Amino acid sequence: MNLEKLLQLKFPELEHTATPRDAMLYALGIGVGDRPEEADDLQFVYEKGLKIFPSQVNVICHPGGWIMNPELEVNWVKLLHGEQAFEILKLLEPGKTYVGRYKITGVLDKGPGKGSLLFMRKELREKGDDTLVSTVDSTYFLRGDGGSGGTLDVAPAPHALPERTPDTSVTISILPRAALIYRLSGDYNPIHADPALARKAGFERPILHGLCSLGVATRAILQECCGNQPERLRSLQLRFSSPVYPGETLLTDIWRDGQTVSFRARVAERDVLVLNNGRAVIN
Question: Which residues are catalytic?
Answer without folding.
Answer: 187, 192, 207, 210
